[in-house]
Specification:
By secondary structure, the chain is an alpha+beta fold. The protein contains 13 helices and 18 strands. It has 4 domains: 111 residues, Beta-Lactamase, CATH 3.30.450; 93 residues, Beta-Lactamase, CATH 3.30.450.20; 108 residues; 160 residues, Heat Shock Protein 90 (2-Layer Sandwich). Helices cover 49% and strands 19% of the residues. Strands 8-7-6-11-10-9 form a 6-stranded antiparallel beta sheet, sandwiched between helices. Strands 2-1-5-4-3 form a 5-stranded antiparallel beta sheet. The protein has a 5-stranded mixed beta sheet with strand order 13-15-16-18-17. It is elongated and about 165 Å long.
């Protein structure tokens, strides 16, 4: 992708991200403000409900107190204290008093829970009232209680008072009013909010028990989930209800448990708040963000086009000049057409090319001198060691010939043996230097790496246990892919690494040779448990003529690196002082090299080896 297109995409993406970020932030703030406002409205409505609930509870308590202080209650309390009380005359008193005091429910109950008179269900006379718990102190506050009627159970707000007739027996008066749609309709609700009440009058939650200010609630099944959660956890719950596929119809429901007698949840107050204002506002924000984003992207395209033309043209010239420098043309120059940062970059480029020309000339001369000096130093060092014994041998011959002619013959034989040995060392040293200077190019053919490793181990078998001092193990992975390589050179690489590992363990140790399957080739690892190397030694280990051994030439690992590089591979070393060293050789499959080699053989008229089969690739 060109730099001009990158600038265009960068500017456009920047504008788009900024607009999206602003729109998201505004939407998030709006949602938070809406939720906060909704929470405040809900809290105010809950407080209003509590005030109305307490007010009506006080009204019910006041009416029950008035009944308790009346004559009827006193007469029934006195009748209760007689040995054989007769309540037949009071059966209809509760209904009459309930009508007078505008109560929906009124019952007179003795201290054993027996109903003496009932306004809502006169036939309950003489039965026990299980909903009244008279074994504990009677609460002064009104509370919600389930009341059974001939037509079914209803929810009421009750107050209970005790009548003291001066006897050991006590009379209780329980009065109340319905908590129903009329009660919900009396609440002053803000626009967009509504109140509903779930009457917990059944063992299993039922949608039939959910009422609103106008009676039954439409679609109550969608509210039953949050109602069940409130009944189960007895805590407030909040949920967003989707009534239809249109987001404008969504509603936030805040469900509050209403405690009844003995801590049981007698009902659930549901406060619904329409999300239509938030949805409309959010839609407008997204529309505005879309318009701003489109306009911003259009402006970004125009600005980026202008900036790209101004910026990329000098950059393209610099890129072309850099390619020329990479190709070796160090005398190239770039036209300086401005005084800004791009102009400074062009001037710096021209200065760099001038410095590169000068430094290249100096570097070539310096490298030539350094190379000859290093070669002369290494040759002098390697040739000096055998020359000293040669000199001593010749001096001994001259001295023996002059002083002891009768022993000269024997000394001559010993000295000539020494001379021949040292001359052989000189020849070997010169041969190693010559060999490194003209490393042969690999002749690629199909090679099984495991076979090469096994051949190398057989060569050094005599120096390994049980005959030698070094333990060894060979871990070869099965099904290694066949690679294209020079088997002789690869044998030489592994031999040098094995020999290097054995030299690192003069007192014995463990030699490990492993092979691995890589993604596109083979890995060979040679490890020892010798004294290890320092990080500085690892960095210089593959440098020609560098050695850590007393009698080494410093060419073994350099030859290894040269061969591996000719195979398009890589050799690396990892070492810890005192714990050992591990050399890793990564070799690619090189099938392209094998194809080239086969074509050359075919041109020469030599039968080529088989090409890699389908299962090899």
């Amino acid at each position: 992708m060109s730099f001009r297109r990158k600038l265009l995409l960068l500017f456009s993406a920047t504008v788009f991200v900024v607009v999206v970020g602003v729109a998201w932030s505004v939407s998030a703030f709006t949602r938070a403000a809406f939720e906060r406002m909704n929470a405040e409205r809900t809290s105010a409505l809950v407080k209003q409900f509590q005030r109305e609930f307490n007010r009506r509870g006080e009204e019910v308590g006041g009416e029950v107190d008035a009944i308790v202080s009346g004559d009827t209650a006193d007469r029934m309390a006195l009748e209760l204290g007689r040995p054989q009380p007769d309540y037949g005359a009071y059966i209809s008193e509760a209904k009459s008093l309930a009508s007078t005091h505008k109560l929906d429910f009124l019952e007179f109950v003795d201290d054993r829970g027996t109903i003496l008179s009932s306004a809502q269900w006169p036939a309950k006379f003489g039965y026990k009232d299980p909903s009244l718990n008279l074994s504990q102190p009677v609460p002064r506050q009104a509370y919600l209680k389930e009341e059974q009627l001939p037509g079914g159970a209803v929810l009421g707000l009750f107050a209970v008072r005790a009548v003291n007739g001066g006897t050991e027996r006590r009379l209780y008066v329980a009065g109340g009013r319905r908590v129903d749609s009329e009660f919900l309709g009396s609440l002053d609700l803000p626009a967009g909010m509504r109140a509903m009440l779930y009457q917990n009058l059944a063992t299993d939650p039922s949608a039939e028990l959910l009422i609103g200010a106008s009676g039954r609630v439409q679609g109550p099944d969608k509210l039953m989930g949050v109602i069940r959660n409130v009944l189960r956890d007895q805590t407030e719950q909040t949920a967003v209800i989707r009534w239809t596929a249109t987001a404008n119809d969504d509603e936030t429901i805040h469900a509050i448990p209403l405690a009844g007698q003995n801590g049981r949840v007698a009902g659930v107050l549901l406060l619904g708040s329409s999300r239509k204002p938030y949805v409309e506002l959010n839609r407008r924000i997204r529309l505005a963000a879309l318009l701003l984003g489109s306009g911003g992207v259009l402006i970004a395209i125009l600005i980026s086009s202008w900036a790209a033309r101004r910026v990329t043209r000098p950059v393209e010239q610099l890129a072309a000049a850099a390619r020329s420098v990479a190709a070796g043309e160090l005398n190239v120059k770039v036209e300086v057409s401005s005084q800004d940062e791009l102009g400074e970059l062009a001037e710096a480029f021209n200065l760099m090319t001038r410095d590169l020309l000068e430094q290249r000339d100096r570097l070539v001369q310096t490298e030539r001198v350094a190379a000859w000096r290093e070669l002369a130093r290494r040759l002098a060092h390697e040739l000096k060691n055998p020359l000293f014994p040669l000199q001593l041998t010749v001096e001994n011959l001259v001295r023996a010939h002059a002083q002891s002619p009768e022993m000269f013959e024997e000394i001559f034989r010993e000295s000539t043996a020494t001379l021949l040995a040292e001359i052989a060392n000189l020849k070997s040293t010169i041969g190693r230097f010559s060999e490194f200077s003209k490393m042969p190019q690999p002749k690629f053919q199909q090679v099984e790496v495991n076979d090469v490793v096994q051949q190398v181990i057989r060569v050094f078998q005599a120096q390994l246990k049980p005959a030698g001092k070094i333990d060894w193990r060979m871990i070869l992975e099965d099904d290694l892919p066949t690679i294209a390589a020079d088997a002789e050179l690869l044998h030489r690489v592994i031999s040098n690494l094995v020999l290097n590992a054995m030299d690192a363990m003069p007192d014995g140790g463990m030699l490990t040779v492993r092979t691995y399957k890589e993604d596109d080739g083979v890995r060979v690892e040679v490890s020892d448990t010798g004294s290890g190397l320092t990080p500085e030694e690892c960095e210089r280990l593959f440098t020609p003529y560098y050695t850590t051994k007393q009698h080494g030439t410093g060419l073994g690992l350099a030859i290894v690196q040269s061969i591996v590089t000719d195979h398009q591979g890589r050799v690396s070393v990892q070492s810890t002082p005192g714990r050992g060293t591990s050399f890793t050789v990564d070799l690619p499959r090189n099938w392209d090299k094998l194809a080239v080699a086969e074509r050359e053989l075919a041109k020469a008229g030599v039968p080529d080896g088989r090409r890699p089969s389908s299962h090899d690739t």
